């Protein structure tokens, strides 16, 4: 096993496992954790024997609850805002490009950046208590990159994307399954076995077929995406606003934000 304490990486034959290991913070992602996820993808691509990469959260309460909000307190410039969204784009793009098939094993919350990570995986196996969403309209008042909006639209369509982002609600596993986001449902006591069974089935099949299928789908989706810079003005508008500062302060103080549109 290799790790940075908050992201554990291990292999078992043809399978690799990344565990987000910050259960006391519901596995909220720090910059170092995002970097470790990218490094894990590099390790997988460097090992031709690995056929499937499984991502999961420690503690059973959350897959990943989002980015650690404390990291936003120093945001002050346009480059802070654009740099964060570029960094997120690079992480999600790296996960999409890893050669092995990817499975998100989701127990509990997959919100914000955690939702983006789960949806960037090829497949999702979830417990009935799993919840997905990007609740920024009622928490921080920021926005996504153009690429991450496009990923959502690819998966659930424009109307559902607007519903989720406008309301800031989290959807449960049953609704996520009805939208085609969930590959399989499994009880908490059975999910490890269910994921291993699915991963073993994939690992036993022709790796070039799986890689070609995965890569062609990625290229088709990527070809439809606008240049991320087309949303730079909107990213800066949100992240440099008084509303974003209020959202971060309110989140850290555990109170409801008071947004005024400025």
Structure, described:
- With 262 residues, this protein is of the alpha/beta class.
- It contains ten helices and eleven strands.
- It has helices at residues 31-46, 78-97, 113-120, 146-156, 158-167, 173-178, 191-203, 207-223, 232-239, 242-253; strands at 2-3, 7-12, 15-20, 52-57, 62-64, 101-106, 109-111, 123-126, 131-133, 171-172, 184-185.
- Strand 3, helix 1 (31-46) and strand 4 form a beta-alpha-beta unit.
- Helix 4 packs across helix 5 (158-167).
- The model has no long low-confidence stretch (mean pLDDT 94).
Q: Specify the biggest β-sheet.
A: 7 strands, mixed
Beta fraction of the residues?
Answer: 15-25%
What separation lies between the terminal Cα atoms?
A: 48 Å
Overall average pLDDT: 94
What is the quaternary state of this protein?
A: single chain
Order of helices and strands: EEEHEEHEEHEEHHEHEHHHH
Secondary structure tally: strands: 11
Using only C-alpha atoms, the radius of gyration works out to 18 Å
Approximately how much helix is present in the residues? 40-55%
Shape: globular
* Annotation field: number of helices: 10
The parts where pLDDT drops under 50 for at least 5 residues are none
Widest sheet: strand ordering: 1-2-3-4-6-8-11
Structural class: alpha/beta
């Amino acid at each position: 096993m290799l790790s940075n304490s908050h992201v554990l990486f291990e292999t078992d034959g043809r399978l690799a496992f990344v565990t987000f290991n910050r259960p006391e913070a519901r596995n909220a992602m720090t910059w170092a954790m995002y970097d470790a996820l990218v490094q894990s993808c590099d390790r997988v691509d460097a090992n031709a024997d690995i056929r499937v990469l499984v991502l999961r959260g420690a503690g059973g309460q959350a897959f990943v609850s989002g980015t650690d909000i404390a990291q936003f307190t120093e945001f002050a410039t346009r480059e802070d805002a654009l740099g964060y969204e570029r960094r997120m784009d690079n992480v999600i793009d790296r996960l999409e490009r890893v050669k092995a098939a990817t499975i998100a094993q989701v127990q509990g919350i997959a919100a914000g950046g955690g939702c983006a990570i789960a949806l960037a995986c090829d497949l999702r196996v979830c417990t009935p208590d799993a919840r997905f969403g990007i609740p920024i309209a009622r928490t921080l008042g920021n926005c996504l990159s153009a690429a991450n909006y496009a990923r959502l639209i690819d998966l659930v369509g424009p109307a559902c994307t607007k519903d989720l982002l406008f309301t800031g609600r989290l959807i449960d596993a049953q609704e996520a399954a009805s939208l085609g986001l969930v590959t399989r449902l499994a009880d908490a006591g059975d999910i490890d076995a269910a994921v291993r069974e699915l991963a073993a089935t994939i690992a036993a099949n022709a790796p070039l077929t799986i890689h070609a299928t995965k890569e062609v789908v990625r290229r088709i989706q990527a070809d439809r995406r606008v240049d991320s810079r087309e949303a730079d003005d909107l990213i800066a508008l949100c992240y440099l606003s008084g509303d974003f500062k209020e959202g971060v302060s309110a989140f850290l103080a555990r109170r409801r934000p008071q947004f005024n549109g400025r």
